[in-house]
Amino acid sequence: MPHGVLILAELMDGKLVPITQELVGAAQRLSAGPVSAMLIGSGVEAAASGITGVETVYVVDDPALAEYTNDAFTSAAEAVARQADPAVILLGQTNIGRDLAPALAYKLGTAVAMDTIGLEMTDGKLHTTRPAYGGNARAVNSFTASPAVATVRPKSQDPALGGSAGAVTKVAVDVSGSRTKLVERKVATAEGVRLEDANVVVSGGRGVGGPEGFETIEQLAHLLGGAVGASRAVADLGWRPVAEQVGLTGKVVSPDLYIAVAISGASQHMAGCAGSKNIIAINKDADANIFKAARFGIVGDYKAVMPALIEAVKKVKAEG
What we know:
This protein has about 325 residues and is α/β, with parallel strands linked by helices. The chain is about 25% helix and about 25% strand. It contains eight helices and 17 strands. The protein has helices at about 20-30, 70-85, 95-110, 215-225, 230-235, 265-275, 290-295, 300-320; strands at about 5-10, 10, 15, 35-40, 55-60, 90, 110-115, 120, 125-130, 135-140, 150, 165-170, 200-205, 225-230, 255-260, 280-285, 295-300. A seven-stranded parallel β-sheet has the order 7-11-6-1-4-5-12, with helices on both faces. Strands 14-13-15-16-17 form a five-stranded parallel β-sheet. A hairpin with a 2-residue loop joins strand 8 and strand 9. The N and C termini lie far apart (about 55 Å).
């Protein structure tokens, strides 16, 4: 009978991505059964010791898995899932997770819930909660099939703290028959904190008027140790790189603080930031939709508000 929770641990530049321990924490709270992790790639076994709070780390280590391809990673994940026989499989809502989860669920003959922010087990069944309609509603899904597969939004779960590393179990999988290969990789680089990992995000919309409008946004983000984001309109106009786009067709972020500058709050944009713990909106239109989602709002021209806000932050930091 399926039991316990299996999570997917991911590596970026040879290091475990932050959501790994968030998934472990969620798994521990979900189940009294065993919590295990799977690590897939080439030369990844050494990273297994960094996954704490799990009983077992299933490692699929093969040169053919050096680069992510859907069919090869799906085959590897399916093999681990059938060996571990979990009741629940959790993946991060990352580029890999959101591509792999549906394929894995299909192979296992089960269902998948995407971009979840809430997880609960009742009578042995997983119930998930995710934002809907641009964050204006919550959708609750209940699984009837097992294992339940779900992706989890970064920063929506408290990470596991402490615990020992799990015992490594190597799983051999033949992925030589993979029908896809990576032809070229282009990495979108951004200065400073990665948007997805930032605790503070300061985003600008088309209302800033042009690329020069982001000067104060960059200053405030730097002062707060955060990252710069942008609306789709800004990215489409070429004012900021696409890598900074927040929204349904861009990045999904869940920072502790999201500051929206001259952003109207269209549902497409709110889908990317609705999971933020606190939203501060700055807009000269008092009827802008963004204020409905904001915890705090400032009605005014950003050209006057932002310099004053920057000076206030500098003063607070100077006072210690």
